Amino acid sequence: MFDKLRQKLSKTRELFSKIEQLFQSSRPQEEILDQLFELLVLADVGVATTEKIINGIKEKSKKSGSTDLKALLKQELISLLSQQSATVNETWPAVWMLVGVNGGGKTTSAAKLAYKYQSEGKKVMLAAADTFRAAAQEQLFLWGKKLNLPVIQGQAGADPASVVFDAVKSFKARNYDLLLVDTAGRLHTYANLMAELEKIKKVISRELPGAPQEIILVLDSTIGQNSIVQAREFNRFSGITGVFLTKLDGTAKGGSVLAVVEELKLPIKFMGVGETEKDLMEFSPESFVEALLS
Ligand code: GDP
Which of 78, 87, 109, 126 has its CA 20 to 30 A from that of 267? Predict the structure, then answer.
């Protein structure tokens, strides 16, 4: 697993290898930290988060007297990424919503989660609540066919909340374990979209008390700092429990993971590292940092 993570993060690792080289130089610590600042910003960690990391290293170094900058950086990154618990709420039966802008990887991520839990013996069902885009429904339907699991769909243009209502009814009647609800990523305005998502959430909790157990924001890591802007919009919608960070395989912007956790105060729960249903990895701060700096 660890080797796979290292390999999938290879583009981001290229940037972090410059940090390793930097630590081997014999220049004064102050200069090295200035250079580290630049490299972290280049890796899309974001200025505010980078400042916090550098200050943390300085403080820890002063307190402990340690000059092992690599070890101090690792500690700092792990503690930053561990601010929120990445534990997934696996109480069954569960309804999870996936939210996020179109193109970020929502549908693919729903398929990955479906495959993961299906492989663990759970009965999984999908609901296509993006009734505004025929292509989105079609795509989820094809995933359902490939993974051999039911997909509840509505007519084009149908009220998404009514599709979800039908889906939860069927989910309960058939005694399934996990219902994954793929939602729309765009409406005329963000306010409309947020209202739509609230409505869906209300229907879910009315039909199944305690649900949705997870509301997962799907974010595209290749857009780096822009993912923070997007996430801020979605954070206006209440109850997001964590992030599924996608496309980490093709990007050097993996540093945005740190900005997501620090600036949005949301835990990363899953990582997308490819286009197939198998390309999902659970997030662990220790292995992520170890994979970048080892
Ligand atoms: P949606 O509009 O949010 O539902 O996004 P899709 O699930 O349709 O994904 C958009 C594109 O991103 C598709 O071409 C996916 O194959 C691709 N994609 C999704 N997740 C990943 C990932 O983790 N890695 C890579 N390389 N591509 C991904």
Answer: 126
